[in-house]
Amino acid sequence: MPGMDATNPRTIPALHRLLDQPEAWALCAQHPRAAVAAALRAHLTALRGQGAPFIAEHAFAAAAAALAAAARPGLRRVINATGVVLHTNLGRAPLPQAARDAVAAEAAGYCNLELDLETGRRGHRHAACSALLSELTGAEAALVVNNGAAAMLLALSALAAGGEAVVSRGELVEIGGGFRIPDVIRQGGARLAEVGATNRTRLADYAAAIGPETRLLLRVHQSNFSQIGFTAIVEPRALVALARDRGLLSVVDLGSGALVDLSGYGLPAEPTMGQAVAQGFDLVVASGDKLLGGPQAGLLLGRAAVVARLAGHPLMRALRCDKLTLAALEATLRLYRDPSGLRQAVPTLDMLAATAAEIGARAVRLLALLPEGMAEIVPGKSLVGGGSLPATELPTCLLALHGPAEALAKRLRLGRPAVMARIAGGRLLLDLRTVAEAELPDLAGALRDAA
Ligand SMILES: *Cc1c(COP(=O)(O)O)cnc(C)c1O
Hints:
Layout: H1 15-19, H2 22-30, H3 33-50, H4 56-71, E1 78-80, H5 97-108, E2 115-116, E3 121-122, H6 127-137, E4 141-145, H7 148-160, E5 164-168, E6 174-176, E7 179-180, H8 181-187, E8 191-195, H9 203-209, E9 214-220, H10 236-245, E10 249-255, H11 273-278, E11 283-287, E12 298-302, H12 304-311, H13 315-319, H14 323-335, H15 342-345, H16 347-353, H17 356-367, E13 375-383, E14 393-401, H18 405-413, E15 418-420, E16 422-424, E17 427-431, H19 440-450
Parallel strand pairs: 1-15, 5-8, 5-9, 9-10, 10-11
Antiparallel strand pairs: 2-3, 4-12, 6-7, 11-12, 13-14, 14-17, 16-17
Helix pairs in contact: 3-4, 5-14, 6-14, 17-19
The structure holds pyridoxal-5'-phosphate.
């Protein structure tokens, strides 16, 4: 730049002079002028702060890099090589292809969200999902809201506000992100009546706690922790019978919301929504994006009269789902009508069911795409995550990368696509349980870039 002494820190140019340079015009052709000005100003401010010399070439390069970074989407694809199937920080369940197709179709135009095409009159946005949930669980009726927490808030507000909800002390759990059962009960306008001890609660404890203010007995599935040793919980059917006997409602928060028995996939049995309905609970609450493997959603199913009270509550409007969620959920639920093709169709189930041998074969295919001596295959364990099956460790095969683990992990996180791995014993480990076959070339590219 003529007339600018690059080596003298006192002669840092004025911003407007920089913006007059052809390099700045080139940046302005790609980015808003205000953003270019802000990026250059930030560079100049940094130079002044450091007492560093001004070098025009560096200034434009720094601005170009900052502008390019800002232009990238904040929310972007991450290859999940942690092996944690339901990773809350990575968006929990990846959607089945059928759900992705349904979302794309509904997003592109209009749909009959609240229109009954048969009569031409107003319809219910939940109609399709409700019918499928009823069919798949045996519930009389069902409703869908934004997530499991919203479902709990709605249930307590509609069924227990002004009264008491009785819960075992062993079930006053924190789900994560500060979401605690006692707080939701309070937020729903109800009072919590705690019964039993942390490790043991008996039917007599519930019976003794019931008073004139009691509205419901609440069972919360210990989805994200497990108790071993001297423990006792009340059989679901006994709890339901006690509630019915005393003219109260019985509600169960299942958390994970499995629709099929996971023991068929070599996993521990997890109570399914259908089982909870069969046990007689008046209302069953679960999430759509945990073991069900669908979109983020809160599922409420049970007796028609109870579900109708929820549907008519003013909070329903604030908690309702949009058309994209409902499209994805309906398509996911539809897959459960054909149990034979389920594992292949629902990525969450496919990843949970994958054996160490299958994952090992995938690791061998990835290794073949990498330069010699970059990594080795070692045995290990994966976790389910998302507050589901906490005590379950799934045998897996890991790719252990040679090199400084922390530095590699950071470069992988900032790469394109971003890759999340895990570090153990000072080594960077990739668990391919959660990496789709189609992602292997991209993952290999990201690993080569980071190394
Ligand atoms: C996960 C979970 C919730 C909350 O569901 P979100 O869909 O995450 O809002 C509530 N209760 C239990 C028992 C859970 O495991």
